[in-house]
Amino acid sequence: MAGKNEKEVVIKVRGLVNQFGSDVIHDHLDLDVYRGEVLGVVGGSGAGKSVLLRTIIGLNKAREGTVEVFGEDPTPHRERPENSVQTRWGVLFQEGALFSSQTVAENIQVPLREYTKMSQELMNEVTSMKLSMVGLPEDAARKFPSELSGGMKKRAGLARALAADPEIVFLDEPTAGLDPISANQFDELVKDLQKSLNLTVFMVTHDLDTLKATTDRIAVLVNRKIKVGTIEELRKDPDPWIQEYFSGARGRAALDG
């Protein structure tokens, strides 16, 4: 356990190399994510933001390096999924990634079926609670993803990510495709849930408004490396891409407004 004045590291990445063919995406990355923080992950197209997320949750095997989540290897336990460290996190993939042939309720119950031996009655109760938690009406449980708006799909995906009461939530471009009002509402929802549930949030995003509204620190993937700091710290970084991102015209409008 971390000492009284130390931050507890819940995600530890060391010497991470991701390479596809001759294309090196990440070149010996080190990263610590602390319990209870909201970490935003940004970078240019092809910088490997989603690849980093997928590597941390065990869906992508790195060429070199190590990843630990709560001190454990995140690779799934095929024989004993209920004992896997994966039970301690939830994931909201891009576009919600809901199963189109299942109702919202059935989607939310997927991790409960996989990792618990909960009765159907109790799963229905959990579903109702999670829908309320993310601001969806009770009747959304019976709908299929095709019947939902973009914002509702994101909320349903978030309800599924929260179904098994995780300690970490991974969000991949959570506000992409949402109008500004819906995006702002989703930011507020994430912020409120993080505080009330004491979640650690690892969020891939390109949205400057979301970064300003929700994050404690930001990890920037640039030139196959990673730089981490607060918005104020990163705006002092001399790297040209970082300067353009945070202090260019759009950055100034979003962050100084």
Would you kindly provide a written description of the structure presented here, covering whatever features stand out?
The protein is an alpha/beta fold and about 260 residues long. It has helices at about 50-55, 105-110, 110-115, 120-135, 150-160, 180-195, 210-215, 230-235, 240-245, 250-255; strands at about 10-20, 25-35, 40-45, 65-70, 90, 170, 200-205, 215-220, 225-230. The strands form two sheets. It has a six-stranded mixed beta sheet. A three-stranded antiparallel beta sheet has the order 2-1-4, with helices on one face. Helix 4 crosses helix 5. The longest helix has 18 residues, at about 180-195. The radius of gyration is 18 Å and the shape is globular. The model has no long low-confidence stretch (mean pLDDT about 90).
Per-chain topology:
Layout: E1 9-20, E2 23-34, E3 38-43, H1 49-56, E4 64-69, E5 89-92, H2 104-108, H3 110-115, H4 120-133, H5 150-161, E6 168-172, H6 180-197, E7 200-204, H7 208-214, E8 217-222, E9 225-229, H8 231-234, H9 240-247, H10 249-255
Parallel strand pairs: 3-7, 3-8, 5-6, 6-7
Antiparallel strand pairs: 1-2, 1-4, 8-9
Helix pairs in contact: 4-5, 6-7, 9-10
The proportion of residues in beta strands is 15-25%
Output mean pLDDT: 91
Overall body shape: globular
Order of helices and strands: EEEHEEHHHHEHEHEEHHH
Roughly how many Å apart are the termini?
40 Å
Report the biggest beta sheet as strand number plus sense, adding barrel if it closes: 6 strands, mixed
What level of helicity do the residues show?
Answer: 25-40%
